Amino acid sequence: MGSILIVAEVQNGSIREASYELASFAQKLGREVHSLVIGSGVAGEAEAFAKKGGGTVHLVDAEAAANYNVDVYAAAIKAAVAATSPDAVLISNTPTGWDVAPRIAAAQDCGFVSDAFDVAEEGGSLVFKRRVFNGKLDAQITASGPVVATMQPGGTAPFEGTTDGSVSALEADLSGAKSAFVEVKVAEAKGVDLSKAEIIVSGGRGVGEPEKFPEVIQPLADALGGAMGASRPVVDAGWLPHEYQVGSSGQIVTPKLYIAAGISGAIQHLVGMKGSNFVIAINKDPDAPIFEVADVGVVADLFEVVPALTEAVSAAKG
Ligand SMILES: Cc1cc2nc3c(=O)[nH]c(=O)nc-3n(C[C@H](O)[C@H](O)[C@H](O)COP(=O)(O)OP(=O)(O)OC[C@H]3O[C@@H](n4cnc5c(N)ncnc54)[C@H](O)[C@@H]3O)c2cc1C
Fold it and tell me: What pTM, to 2 d.p., does this model score?
């Protein structure tokens, strides 16, 4: 069985959490694990990654790689592929991954799987899972040869253990770049990053009006030390900005606790939150599909239950 090559993604000098999730996927496959760390002044990050699931880390530490440039990254990845001959190259399904992964697959003339949320070893082959038809079905894709795959952030937890790993410099010719880095324009910081929240309290159309989000939903999120989320109709109506939306066309979230208030549980919403560790659903309709994925279901008016919960949590905290 061939090895796995992880392409770690460096952002602002640090390896992203999504890369540690790739390490989780690679380690569970039980194959030899290699990683590529590319950047400038990132030797310390490479050492840390080697000990946290990255296996044998190949480091391309060069001024030319200080900022993301698809030509430079592609050249480094090709050098790492040539050095390791992996069965699979795992890249995070991030804007960087979307940009560079298809180039690698085309250059290697190998298979390509995009946006997979899981990978397993079956009978000597790698089997990837990805959601299709807006999350209604999970498709299984069996790699019959070497493959490049982008993996959905949040598909698994970041690697937690400690591993024996090593770091060695990789020679790569980065000189032929046709594009040049100009500048990074950082988008204006917006309210929430649901992907990192451990507790999310989401409101749906059942909340009824925009003012009720700051009045009813946000106070419970605040009392629990969590973040507020929403279903799509809430965002489509302009009650909250898009970054609050959970679901197939919003964010995929995996918090420890997800509270859904006034959300029916359409498949496109469930796709975004069914990886949550514990789900509490509050809905007036006992037949609402959200109850099928709920650990605790409360058939009641959210305007009675949510303020009562907020009060109880605040009182418990003193
Ligand atoms: C291509 C596509 C992509 C989509 N992507 C997404 C996505 O990313 N995220 C997403 O959420 N949706 C998405 N949708 C929309 C999705 O199909 C549903 O329409 C949407 O999730 C429904 O939102 P909701 O549950 O808030 O509203 P509704 O389905 O209208 O449900 C409202 C619920 O509130 C309950 N309720 C009403 N009043 C109260 C009360 N006082 N107390 C308690 N319960 C009450 C009702 O019983 C009902 O169950 C997508 C659809 C398409 C076609």
Answer: 0.70
